[in-house]
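Session log. Operator J.P. requested a structure for one protein chain; no other inputs attached. Running the standard single-chain path with token output.
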Amino acid sequence: GIVTQQTILFNDTVRNNIAYGDINKSEGEIIAAAKAANAYDFIMKMDQGFDTLIGEQGARLSGGERQRLCIARALLKNAPILILDEATSSLDSEAELEVQKALENLMAGRTTLVIAHRLSTIQNADRIVVISDGRIVEEGRHDELMECDGEYCRLYDMQFAQVDNNSTVKTVTNVSGQVNK
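Structure written below.
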């Protein structure tokens, strides 16, 4: 399964967007995926619930709602390997928190490759690889990398001190981790 920062949604119903590629999924499975993705409540507030048309690329939804529908789709697919490519990069802090909770459900029991500049998405990874200028400069768990006082620690301090994150993008090509929970 894959969840990217650019969501792929269709001018169709919420139900069909979650079940995309597998029309044989039951209503119960679709609802369970929506609940695990923290999407169920906002879906039920829509005029027609799961039958609501969301517009081209989910135009009727917020960024966080679009992400959670894509997470529900990935949950429904139940793939053993998951790729998260900047899955929270375009979200505000409140939406990121909701998506982060959904991602925790999605990553449980799966091998997950996370590509992220927002370090909050990788803190619980079993292994974090820091890449700068196309080279691996550090690797380890969050706590190990924080003790090293290296590039990861510098980036972490910058992000959580609310310093301009644009310098992170220029310095680090990506930060990725594998999660096996």
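Operator note: Strands lie at 2-4, 81-85, 111-116, 127-132, 135-140, 172-179.
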